[in-house]
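2024-03-11 09:14:02 INFO receiving multi-entity request
2024-03-11 09:14:02 INFO entity count = two
2024-03-11 09:14:03 INFO echoing inputs for audit
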Amino acid sequence: MAQIEEEHKLIQLEIKYTTEIHKNVPIDLNGTVLKFQETLQELLKVPIQKQKIMIKGSLLKQDQDLSKLNLKNGQQIMVMGAREEHLLNLKQGKKIFEEDLTPEQKAILLKQKAGIVLPIGLVNQGNTCYMNASIQILRRVNELNEYVKNNAKQGQGPSVKLFNALSDVFQQLERKGESFKPFNFLSILFQLYPGFAQRENHMSFKQQDADECFQNILQTIEPLTTYENEEGQQKNLVKELFEIELKSTIENQDLPDEPKKVSIEKGKKLMCIIDNQSRPVNTLIEGITVSLEEQLQKISEIDQQTHIYKKTQKIFKLPSYLLCQMVRFFWKQGVQGKEGVKAKILRNVAFPKTLDLFDFCAPELQEQLLAGREYEKKKLLEMAAKETDELEQFKKDLEASGKMIPDDTREIYKLFKAKKQQEEIKNHDDQLYRKHGLGLVTGNYQLIGVLTHTGREADSGHYMAWVHHSGDNWILYDDEKTFEKKIEQIMELRGGGDWHMGYYLLYRRLEIE
Amino acid sequence: MEEKKVSLDKQAQKKPGKQVVQLSEQDLELKNRLEQYVEEIIQNNPESLEKLKTEVRSATTSMTSVPKPFKFLKESYGKLVEFYNGLETSRFKKQLADFLSVLAMTYGGDRDSLLYLQEGTLEEFKFWGHEYLSHLAANIGSEFQIRLQKQEGADDLLFLVDEIIPYFMDHNSEHDAIDLLSEVDQLQKIEQFVNQVNIQRVLVYLLSIVPFCSDQDELDTLLVTAFNICMKVNEYTNALRIALRIDKPGKVEQVFEACQDAIIKKQLAFQLARHRYQIDEGIINDETLKKIAANQYLSQFYINLAKDLEVLEPKTPDQVYKAHLEEKNKEANFEQIQKNLAATYCNGFVNAGFKKDALMGNKENPWLNNVKNDHTAIAAVASIGLINLWNIDNGTEQISEYFDLSDIYTRAGGCIGFGLFCSGIVDENQPAQAMLLAQLESPEVQVKIGAVMGLGLAYAGSARVELQEQLISVLIETADSVELAAMAALSLGLIFVGKCNDEVANAIVQTMLERPESQLDISISRYFAVGLGLLYLGQAEAADIVIESLAVIPHKISKYAKVTLTSLAYASTGNVLKVQELLGYCSEVTSDDKGTKIDKNYELQQVAILGIALIASSEDVGSEMVYRIFQHILQFSDVEVKRAIPLAVALINISNPKIQPMDLLLKLAHDRDQELSYRATLSMGLLGAGTNNSRIADKLRGLAVYFMNDSNGLFLVRIAQGLLHMGKGLLTLQPYYSDKFLMNKVAIAGIISFLHGCLDIKNLILEKNHTLLYYLGIAMYPRMFFTLNDNLENLPVQVRVGQAVDAVGQAGKPKRITGFQTHTSPVIVSAGERAELGNDEYMPVQDMILENFVILKKNPDYKPEIEQPQRKKTSFSM
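2024-03-11 09:21:47 INFO inference complete, emitting structure
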C-alpha cells in the first residue's frame, strides 16, 4: 500500500477547521508547504500567516517536507487561525483603573466628577494630635476654609507664612487623596510659638493643649483675613465668624450705691466651668452660666476699701460660630513636696445638639432675637401643616399605586419619612453650610464639631476631631485614620469615664428664612 | 479439657437464684419430658438422645424468643457435660458432642460450640439451621485468629468453612459467607459460589467492606475477588468499575477483551471516559467507541442538558453577584482592575463549558480593554478555555486570534486556555501538544509559563511520554525563573499523576537539590513538592523510597515535600496510621520549658492538616472524625495552624454544602485574622461549588458587604460566588464518584494544586498567580445523569432522585433512596443523592450505578400498567 501511495503523491485529506470539516481535500505531497497553505487559504479564508496546521501533535513548519510526514489518504488534520472578519477589535483605548491612579489623581477626579471630597487625615508627627485635631475642626468652618484656601498672602512675616501653610494644608486635604504630614505648617507653628516645640526627654514633642493651639492659630491669621465686602466695607472674617461680644456689668455687692460699671468685652470662646467648688455642673448650660457670673474682690473707688463685686456678663453680639471650651484642665498644687500636675476633670457634662443661647443674651439682643423666634414658631406651624397635607397626598398616592398599604398609620408615616429623608438631609445640610446673614437669628446653635481628649492628664492622652459631615453623619479624624460616625455616637462624648470626651465644642448659628 | 471445666463452673454459678416462673401445663409437660430424656441419656441411652434431638430440632420459634427446649435444658446442660466428660470414646459420645455443640450456642463458653463439634460426628451439623451456623462461623473466626497467632495449622477449620459456605450461599446469607471467608483469609473461594442470581448481593456487600480493609494486601484480595466474580458472571460494567479501582495495568483491557456485546462496550467506554482512563488504541478499534472513550461526547451532552434545563443563556457576573440585594452604601466610582479580574473569573466559572459567555464573547466591546496588559490579561484570555471546556472545535475558533497578538500576556493566556479546553479530550491530531510545544520555544518566560501550564492542564492524567523530556528539560535547565520551573514540575505531576514515574521524580528531587536556597524560599517553589507528590497520588507504599531520598535536601522544602508526598500517596485511603503521623506534625510544642516561643514551621503544619483531610476524604465516617479533630485544632492551636482548617474543611466537603461546615466557615470568614478570613471566604465557594446553594449565596452577599472596604476580601467573595454558581449549577468538583468508590485522580490533582496555592493566598492568589484558579477547571465534571438508547441518543425516562440510604446487607428489596422527586431524564444529581429509574419499562444495559451516562434497554419482563399517564416525550437530536 505504502508504495502505491508514494507513487501517486497526490492524496486526499480531511481538513478540520473549528466546527467545519472539509472532506477530500487534494494535496500534492511533492509540493511545498506554502502551496498547501495557499490551498487552505482558498478553502478556509484564513490568511497564510495565521494558519496553524496541526498534525499528530506537532505544528507544520514552512521548511518541512510534506512527503516525509507520512500522511495517509483520508487522514484528518486540524487547522487553526482567525479569519479576517473575526479579528479582534482592540483599537479602543484601555480604560483607566483605580489601581493605576495615585491617591491625588483619584481625589481630583472624584471632586471633579462627583463633587465628593474624601475625608483625609493628617499624620501624627510625634504627639501633634492636638494640632491635627485643631486643623480638622477649623476646616469645618466652611467660610474660613474657602477664604484661606483661595487667598494665599504675599509677604515674608511668620504669620503670613503660617497663613499660607494653613492654606496649603486645607488644599491638600482636598487634593491629596491620602493622609499626609503637615510638616511645613508644624515647623512654622514652632517658630511662632516655641512653647509647642518642647520635647519630652529629647525624644518626641510634648503633648500640648489644643485650646492654646486653636486660639493661637486664630489669633495669628486674624489680621490677615481682612477683606472688602460687596458694599466696599472693610471686614475681618475671623472676627465676623468667631468674635463674641459680652456686655459685662460689675456691681458692688456691699455698696449698692456705687454706680455699675458696664463694659463690652470681646472674646472668641465661651467657657464652660466644670470645677465649680461645691455646686456640681452637669450640663453645658450650667457650666456657661457659672462662667458668666463671677464674684471678685476689688478696691472700690469710693471708699478705697476692698469689696466683693459681682460681675455679670451677657452676650451682646452672637458669633457665626460659637466655640465652647470645657474647662477640664487645671493646675493641681503638689501636696507634701510633690510636684504639681496639670490635672483633668473627667466629669460627665452633657452638651446639646442644639444650643439655645437666648437666656445668656443681653436684653437688647433678646429683643432682636424675639422677632426671629416668633417667626420660627410660625414657620414650624406652617411646616407641620404642610407636612400633614403632604402626608395625606402621600397616602392617596400610595392607594393609587395599588401597592400593599400598611394598616398602622405609624407605618405609613415611616414610609413617608423615608421618602422625604433625602430632602430633609438636604435642608439640614443647607442650614449648616450656607452663608450667614441672610436669615433671621433665633439664638439657636447647632453642634458641628467636637474636639475630644482622652487620658487622665493634660500632658498625655490623645486628641481627636469629630466633625459634622452631612445629615446625621459625622467623620472622626483620628490623626491619619478617618471613620464614619453617627450623631448618637457624638452625643456620647460627654465624658465621665476613660472614653474620649468633649473638650472643645464648635457650634454653628442657625438662621431661619 | 480445662476450658470445659471452666464453662462448667460458670453454669454452676448461674444455678442459684432459681426462677420462680409459673409454667403452663404444656410447658411443664415439655420440660419434664426433656428432663426425662436427659436422665435417660445419662443412663447411656442413645435412643433418648435421638428423641431429644428431634424434640429440639422440631421446636419452632419466633424471631425474638429462644426456642423452649433450649430454655428448659438450661439445668440439664451441666449434667450432660459432666456425663460427656466421663464417657469413653464411642459413637454415642460423638453424637452427644454434636448435641452439646448446639446447646453450647446458648449455654457454652467462648468457642465451645466449635470444640464440641469437632469432637462430634461432623455429619449432621448443617441441619441445625442458620442461627447455629452463624454462631459457628463466629467461633471459627475467633479460633482462626488464635491459631494464626500461635502459628498453628487450621485445615480442620477450613474444612468446616467449606461445608458452611454453600449453606450460607444457598440461604440468602451471602454477607455471612463473605464475613466468614474474609475472617479465614479465603475470600477467593466465594468465586465458585457466585451466579447470576446472587451476584448483586455478593458484590454490594463485598464493595461496601472495602473502606474497612486494614491493609493493602487485604484490599487487593478483596478487589481482585470482586473483579473475578464479576468477570465470571459477565458483569462487565461492575468489573470495569472494580478494575479502575484496582488501577493495575491489564485489568481494564481484560474487561474489554472479554466483553463481546457492542452496546455494553459503549457503556464501558463511557465509564473509561469519566475516569479519564486512556486505553490502548489496539483494544478499541471501533470509531464510536474511540469517540466515547476520548470524551468527545461530553460537551455535546452537557450543552443538551443546559438546553433541557433552559440555562443555556450566558450569565453575567452581575447576575451572579446579585449586588442589588447587598446592603450597599457607596458606589464605586472607578473601573477597578481587581473588580474586573474577579468578574473575569466569575464569568469563566459560571459559563464553564457552555461555549458562550457574557464578557469574552463580546466582539464589539472587547473585555480585554477592561483588563490591564499584565497577569489580568492572562486570566481573561485563559477564561475562554473554561468557557469552551471539553470542546476543542469551538475553543480553537475562539482562542486562535489571541495567539496572533504580539502581546506576551494574551499569548500566555491563550496557552492556558488552550490547555483547559483540550483537557481530558483525546484528539488524534493532539492540537494542544502541537500548539503549546511551539509556544514553549518562545523566548519570553511568561509565554513559556503559560505553555507549561497549558500542557499540564491538557494532558493531566494522560501519562503522555512525548511531553516528558521537554518538560523535564524546562524543569532542570531553567535557572532564573523559579515560577517556570515550579510550573513545569506541577505539569509533570499532573500529566503523570499516580503513575510513579521514577524518571520524573528523580528530576524533581534533583532540581530541588541543586537550586539555590534563595530560589526555594520563594512561595511558588512549593509546586516542586506538589508536582512530586502528584506522581505518587494514591500509590501508598510506592512513595516510600522517594520520601527517604528527600532527606538529602538541606532546605526546609524537603519537609514540605515529605508531608505533601505522604498525604498524596495515601490520599483517600483512610489510613489511620498516616493520619496519626500527620497529626504529629500539628502537635509540635509551641514553646520550650522557659516559655519562649520556638520558631515553628507553620507551613508544614498547614500542609499536614490538608493532608489529613485528603486521606480521610473518601469515606463518610473518616470525614466525620477528622472534622472533629479540626474542631480541636480550632480551639487549641495557634492562629497560623488554624488558617489551614477552612481549606481542609472545604476539601472533605467539596461541592457538598452541608450546614455544619457552612456555619463553621462563615464564622471563620469573620475572624479577626485576615488570612484566615480570606481562606474561609474562598472555602465557602469550594464548599458549594456548582450547587447554586441559596444559603451560601446569601451568606456570600453578606460577606461582600463585610468586605466592602477591603478590595482583596471582596475579590475573594466574587470568586467564591463564581464557584458557587459554577456551570450555572450543573457542575461539581467532587473527585469521588460511583458511590465514592472511585476517585478521579485528575480531579484530586486539580483541587490539590489549587489548595496549595491557597496556603499563601496573599502572595499567590491575590498577587500574580491567580491563574492557579484554573486548575479547578480540570476537576469540573457535570453532575448529570443521562439515559441513552443504544444509538447514543437521549432516551427520556422517569427518574427518581433522592437522598441515598445505606441498604447494604439488608434482607429483601429495601428502599435505597428517600425523599425523592421524579423527573424526566436527563437529571442532575447532588452530593449524597442517588438516582433510580422510575419504572421497570427500561433497565440499564447492565447493572450499574446510575450516574453520568447510562445506556438503557427494554426490560423484557415489563408489563405496562394500564392507567399509566402518558409521558411527555421530549427528545433532542444529537
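2024-03-11 09:21:48 INFO post-check: Chain B has a mean pLDDT of 86.
2024-03-11 09:21:48 INFO post-check: Residues 464-569 of chain B form one domain.
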